TrEMBL record:
Species name: Bathymodiolus thermophilus thioautotrophic gill symbiont
Entry GO CC: cytosol; ribosome
Superkingdom of source: Bacteria
Pfam families: YceD
Keywords, comma-separated and alphabetical: Ribonucleoprotein, Ribosomal protein, Ribosome biogenesis
Name assigned to this protein: Large ribosomal RNA subunit accumulation protein YceD
Family under the similarity heading: Belongs to the DUF177 domain family.
Functional description taken from the UniProt entry: Plays a role in synthesis, processing and/or stability of 23S rRNA.
Example of a GO biological process term: ribosome biogenesis
Length: 168
């Protein structure tokens, strides 16, 4: 099967039945909820999605995403580059009983939507892997240095994310 770009909408059962394989290189700016957290808008987001039908009727997506995000270090407030490589193997079930025969390698999701947004789907998988408090690996600020930051209660970039989620 030749690899092709990922369509804007995932048609779950249709793609799974055909065992389609997609890959595409996006930019951080293509994912509004991710780009709200990061300052490297032009950076590449490599996405590969393999669709399959398991047990003859359960649509599954095996995927791999690779990206670097320039986030704000929560200790020194400078930029910190975080490499993320979320991998997932999802089975979309109509009901929990459907999953009983399925390999334990699959993470199961109860889902009745045949069609959903590719960008939103990828966004959710990336955001799960983003550290809640990104920090440099080295001691970028001393304990004393971090005190005023805590007192100021600087707005956490993830508060924005929460707001976006609440609007949905
Ligand atoms: Zn730092």
């Amino acid at each position: 099967m030749m690899k092709q770009g990922i369509p804007e909408q995932i048609k779950l059962f249709k793609f799974a039945t055909k065992a389609l394989i997609f890959s595409q290189v996006y930019q951080v700016r293509d994912f509004p909820r991710i780009s709200a957290l990061a300052s490297n808008q032009d950076a590449a987001v490599n996405v590969a999605l393999n669709f399959s039908l398991e047990e003859g009727r359960i649509p599954c997506i095996k995927g791999e995403i690779k990206l670097n995000l320039a986030l704000t270090c929560q200790r020194c407030l400078d930029e910190v580059s975080v490499h993320l490589e979320p991998k997932f193997q999802l089975a979309f079930l109509k009901n929990e009983q459907q999953g009983e025969a399925l390999s334990a390698n699959f993470e199961t999701i109860l889902n009745t939507d045949e069609e959903f947004s590719t960008i939103e789907f990828i966004t959710d998988e990336v955001l799960i892997s983003v550290p809640m408090t990104p920090m440099h690996k080295h001691e970028c600020a001393s304990y004393q240095d971090t005190q005023p930051i805590n007192k100021q209660k600087r707005e956490n970039p993830f508060a924005i994310l929460q707001q976006l989620k609440n609007k949905e």
